[in-house]
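Saturday, quiet lab. Running sequence design on the structure tokens for the scaffold JK sent over.
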């Protein structure tokens, strides 16, 4: 969104508010892991996945969503998904209550400079030089069925042109070409050497 002064600003809707119920309880992964908020980058995506498995009312659905989001963050250059950017939200009582993976809290590209890592939290023991094997290792660690993982990747692969169209239509600043470059490079890394 452009501000009155023509600066790019992020406009986001609070996902932890409901018109009828008011504020909805949310726990981020920093809280759920018992880590101090100053250590948001000192963890791994497999630990986040284990926390989701432990506390989610629908663990395998949420783990599939989690892996999908991890891949989309990688594709779009969002290397800043630290512990406080992953949360579980309390589901409404009329849907059974309990916790489930919340909507993404920060899902926009961060990596426009070489200083940022590909992933804020380690993926298969690394933050950079991430490959398709690392995502598969995460899915295996979290006990995702191979066929479910293949279907997830096929769905993401089929959305390439939609991602590029979204970048063209939604990114209204000089970094559009850089974001496309990041997306295409990461898409190639993910799918060209993939076993799936």
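Result came back. Writing it out in full:
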């Amino acid at each position: 969104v452009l501000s009155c002064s023509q600066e790019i600003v992020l406009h986001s809707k609070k996902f932890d508010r409901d018109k009828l119920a008011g504020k909805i309880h949310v726990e981020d992964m920093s809280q759920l892991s018992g880590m101090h908020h100053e250590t948001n980058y000192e963890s791994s995506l497999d630990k986040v996945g284990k926390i989701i498995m432990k506390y989610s009312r629908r663990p395998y659905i949420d783990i599939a969503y989690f892996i999908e989001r991890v891949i989309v963050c990688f594709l779009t250059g969002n290397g800043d998904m630290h512990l406080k950017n992953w949360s579980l939200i309390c589901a409404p009582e009329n849907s059974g209550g309990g916790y489930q993976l919340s909507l993404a809290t920060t899902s926009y590209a961060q990596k426009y400079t070489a200083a940022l890592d590909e992933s804020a939290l380690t993926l298969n023991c690394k933050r950079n030089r991430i490959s398709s094997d690392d995502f598969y290792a995460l899915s295996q660690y979290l006990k995702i069925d191979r066929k479910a993982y293949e279907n997830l990747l096929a769905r993401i692969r089929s959305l390439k042109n939609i991602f590029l169209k979204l970048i063209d239509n939604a990114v209204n600043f000089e970094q559009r070409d850089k974001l496309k470059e990041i997306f295409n490079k990461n898409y190639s890394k993910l799918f060209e050497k993939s076993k799936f």
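Notes for JK: Confidence is low (pLDDT under 50) at residues 8-13. The helical segments are 29-33, 45-55, 59-75, 132-141, 146-158, 160-170, 176-191. Ask whether to fix the surface positions before the next round.
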